[in-house]
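Technical annex B. To support the medicinal chemistry partners, we prepared a structural model of the target in complex with glutamine, based solely on the information shown next.
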Amino acid sequence: MNNIETLRQAIDDNSITVPKLAEATINHAKKLNPQLNAFLQLDRDGALSQAEATTLNGRSNGDADKVFRGIPIAIKDNICVRGLQATCGSHILRGYHPQYDATVTTRLREAGAVIIGKTNCDEFAMGSSNENSAYGAVRNPFDLERVPGGSSGGSAAAVAAGIVPVALGSETGGSVRQPAAFCGIAGLKPTYGRISRYGLVAFGSSLDQVGIFATNARDIAHTLRVIAGRDARDATSADVEVPDYAAQIEGDIQGARIGVPRLLFGEGLDAEVRAKTEAALNVFRDLGAEVVDIELPHAKYAIAVYYILATAEASSNLARYDGVRYGVRSESAMTLKDMYRRTRDEGFGAEVKRRIMLGTYVLSSGYYDAYYRKAQQVRALLRRDYERAFEQCDVIFTPTTPSTAFRLNEKTDDPLAMYLSDIYTATANLVGTPGLSIPCGMSSENLPIGMQLVGRHWSESVLLKLAHAYEQVQPFTHRPSVYADVLKS
Ligand code: GLN
């Protein structure tokens, strides 16, 4: 199994050198990418020079640094890595090479991680299947005819396929947790403000967070510790202490209160997903947790609220792509206005255009009160629902997704059906609370099923501890058909 700790051990006992590991990882990525389309760019030279540097001077700066020294990672294409293209899965940013690292990139580099490349995603992180990428869909390593989920599908597929133990994604409404569930891995959306967004390309600024994919809760804990914390370059990053998440992960979960919003286990939920998540609840009961019923009266509005607010914010954030400052510029325009118009028309894909139009509409005078303001009001009610729920429980438990990974093209003609994939995830973004998805079984079609734990603000440790306790008794050992064991190469 390719996780940080096995790779760490292999490096520390000299079974593999850091440059060899980087080389093997790149080779695997190259070999599997024609099937998966998970990487938009691989950086062999950069990875090898980082690997060499790490080997020369890596061991100096504290515990977290030791854990990551020489570990290969992948980064979603909407997070800046200096010198590598950041297309965000969009044609409009083709050829845009940021001159700076995102703070998360810097922190991982400083911890000794080796960045092997940029991963494919839905255009500007808008989507739930990765089919909205201008560079083609990513495929699910468990079944190449199915989607990996989105929008961070490339990162999820890269981890699930064993290419890298950890990858970064981004979350606005479920883009880490949902693909994690579809690909049989763990995915964390941290508390709003937990991780700096400097260098993360903005989509919905009141919702966006960087998220983490890994094969288990402990690796998420290691990664979170390195990248979390206040950053002077992002005013929304909070000055809240960053605990040693991995050190807090052990221990029994006796007495933990798990809240179950029963109404969300009804209509629209696949029977196998329901059965496996119910079984997972029993595992938690056996581990000594107390399961209580809770109510989230406004949860049914979450998708509507999310798609009003996220599109409103996107329409404003994406105004900056005008052909002047970044990426491509239409060649055919005669006037400035024409150049803006054509650049945006040629550069953006259909879903992004749909969102810009929806977002502009809900913000326009006459409709603002009916849509945007109303959605903000319901968002406040959702926050209150969660506050009340957390008086009764420590975490809220649901499936991560209503179904397992769907087939390519199954939902592309029906945006609304696609939007409903986020029904269990979007609320955590609206409320700002952390959410973690981990695998809890397989369907009869051999597809992974994920469960979700959502906690109070800043309670990542609680989520990780519960997930870790579950993993100890129910380890997820299913490997996809497309899988590379990096150490056996
Ligand atoms: N699927 C959701 C959307 O399309 C969430 C995307 C995300 O979290 N970036 O907006």
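Notes passed to the chemistry partners:
The two ends are 13 Å apart (CA to CA).
The chain has a mean pLDDT of 95.
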